[in-house]
Amino acid sequence: MNSNIARRWFLSQCGVGLGAAALSQLSGSARAFADSHSDSLASQPAQRPATAKAVIHLFMAGAPSQLELFDEKPTLTQFEGRPLPKSVIGDQRYAFIQPDAAVLGPQFKFAKHGQSGAQISEAMPHLARIADDICLIKSMHTDQFNHAPAQIFLNSGFSQPGRPCIGSWALYGLGAETQDLPAFVVMSTGAGLSGGAALWSSGFLPGVYNGVQFRSQGDPILNVNNPAGVSEQLQGDTFALINQLNRERMKVVHDPEIATRIASFEMAARLQTSAPELMDLKKESQHTLDLYGCDPDKPSFARACLLARRMVERGVRFINIYHSGWDAHSNVKGNVQNNCNTTDQASAALVKDLRDRGLLDETLVVWGGEFGRTPMVESNAALGRSLGRDHHPQAFTMWMAGGGVKPGMTLGATDDFGFHVVEAPVHVHDLQATMLHLMGLDHERLTFHHAGRDFRLTDVHGHVVHDILA
Amino acid sequence: MSPAAHAQDAPVDFNADVRPILSNTCFHCHGPDQNTREADLRLDQQHPLFEDRGGHVAVKPGDAANSELIRRILSNDPDEVMPPPDSSKTLTAAQRDTLVRWVNQGATWQQHWSFVKPIRETPPDVGNDAWTRNEIDRFVLHKIRAAGLEPSSPAAPHILLRRIYLDLIGLQPTPAETDAWLTKIWGSTRFDSADGSTPPLKESAWQELIDHLQASPHYGERWARRWLDLARYADTNGYEKDRDRSIWPYRDWVVNAINSDLPFDQFTVEQLAGDMLPDATIDQRIATGFHRNTMLNEEGGIDPMEFRYHAMTDRVATTGTTWLGLTLGCCQCHTHKYDPVSHTEYYQIFAYLNNADEPSLLLPSESVDEQWAKNKKQADELLADLPNQWPVNDSQNVNAEIASAVADGSQTLTVADGQWIDVSGPNSETATYVVELNLPTLQFDSIKLSTRTTGKAKGPGRTRHGNFVLNEITFEVQSNNSAPSAASGPTLTALPITAATATVEQDSYEISKAIDGDLATGWGIHGSRGIPDVAEATFQLDTSALQQLKSANGLLKVTIKQTTGDKHTIGSFALSLQKNRTPDETREARQHSLAKAFDAWRRSEKANAVDWKILVPVAATSNLPILTIQDDHSIFASGDTAKRDDYVITLEAADHPISAIRLEALPDDRLPEGGPGSTYYEGTLGDFYLTEIGAKSGSTKFPFVSATHTYAKNRFGSNPATAAMAIDGDIQTGWSVHGRQGEAHTAVFVFAEPVPAGTPLTIDMSFGRHFASSLGRFRFSATDSPTPPEARMYSPDVSQLLRDADRPLSHDQHAKLLSTFLTSAEQLSAQSEKIRKLRLRPSATSSLVLQSRPPEHTRPTFRHHRGEYLQPKEPVTVGLPSVLLPANAAAPTDRLEFARWLVSSQTPLTARVVVNRHWAAFFGNGIVKTLDDFGLQGAAPSHPELLDWLAVTFSNDDQWSIRKLHRKIVSSATYRQSSGMSNAALQIDPDNRLLSSSPRIRLDAEIIRDQLLVAAGVLSTELGGPPVRPPQPGGVTESAYGSPKWTASKGSDRYRRSLYTFIKRTAPFAMFSTFDAPSGEACIANRDRSNSPLQALTMLNDVMLMELAQKAGESVVEDSTLTDTASRIDNLFRRTMVRLPNADELKLLQTFFEEQKLHFATNPKQAADFTGQKLADVKLQSGDVAQTDDINPQSTTSDSDNLLAEQAAWTATARAVFGLDESLTRE
Question: Which fold would CATH assign to domain A52-223+282-468?
Answer without folding.
Answer: Alkaline Phosphatase, subunit A (3.40.720)
